[in-house]
Design a protein that fits this description.
By secondary structure, the chain is of the alpha/beta class. Helices cover about 40% and strands about 20% of the residues. It has a single domain (about 5-235), classed as 3-Layer(aba) Sandwich (Rossmann fold), CATH 3.40.50. One of its GO terms (molecular function) is hydrolase activity.
Length: about 240
């Protein structure tokens, strides 16, 4: 599957960005210009059923991982200098690394789950995602996401309109999977986090994962704590 890739910048380094569930490549609207300014060519991908990418009603995490790798292969091969995945996107990146279809020099997972349970009722889940999508308007997000900036809400509301509940439901109803962050990678988590609690963070550290916490951050960490997010990743935003 060929995914939509927003390609910005002409630097000598390449950064791959993968958004979370219900988001889009535009979710990185504050991160992309900074990466470009730091000398990166930035490839921000729309996952299947999100943004301008095709729907996939047989979606699994491995299918998503292979689609991301295939969609950027012509630009950066299988080894981008940096790959950052948020939430679902972090899980997809971890799968791509474990499956051997991507080999980033630096892999960053932002507040991401380590796997999926699978086995949810497909029709019920699709209806729940459709209901959530209806509530993700600018006005709705203003009430439920006070930590977001106004442009963040505009971007997320636009992403919600393009989000396909049936693709997400296929993923939830399919087989469960486990793809924790690979050893040597970096995890940036909100603290507290719904996905990376203290016990899980300790387990990651035991596996050679560098876990960095941003107290009080929202799940989409850079929306609420942009400067702290940038400061947490000197390997990415520092000099080449």
């Amino acid at each position: 599957m060929q995914l939509h890739v927003d390609d910005r910048g002409h630097g000598s380094r390449t950064a791959l960005l993968v958004h979370g569930l219900t988001g889009s490549s535009e979710s990185w609207h504050r991160v992309v210009p900074l990466l470009v300014a730091h000398g990166y060519r930035v490839l921000a991908v729309d996952l299947p059923g999100h943004g301008r990418s095709p729907r996939d009603h047989a979606l699994t995490i491995p299918r998503a991982a292979r689609a991301v790798a295939a969609s950027v292969a012509g630009t950066c091969g299988t080894a981008p200098d940096v790959a950052i995945g948020h939430s679902l996107g972090g899980l997809v990146l971890a799968a791509a690394v474990e499956l051997g279809v991507l080999h980033p020099r630096v892999t960053v997972s932002v507040d991401a789950p380590a796997g999926t349970r699978g086995g949810w009722d497909r029709d019920e889940t699709a209806a729940e995602y459709a209901e959530e999508r209806r509530g993700r308007t600018v006005e709705g997000l203003r009430a439920t996401r006070p930590a977001y900036g106004e442009q963040d809400r505009v971007v997320e509301a636009r992403a919600a309109r393009r989000f396909d509940p049936d693709t997400a439901a296929a993923l939830a109803a399919g087989p469960g999977c486990s793809f924790p962050p690979p050893p040597g990678s970096i995890v940036v988590r909100a603290d507290p986090s719904a996905y990376v609690d203290d016990d899980r963070a300790a387990g990651y550290r035991d596996r050679g994962v560098d876990v960095r916490s941003i107290p009080g951050a929202a799940h989409t960490v850079w929306y609420s704590h942009f400067d702290a997010f940038v400061a947490a990743l000197p390997e990415v935003f520092g000099p080449s």
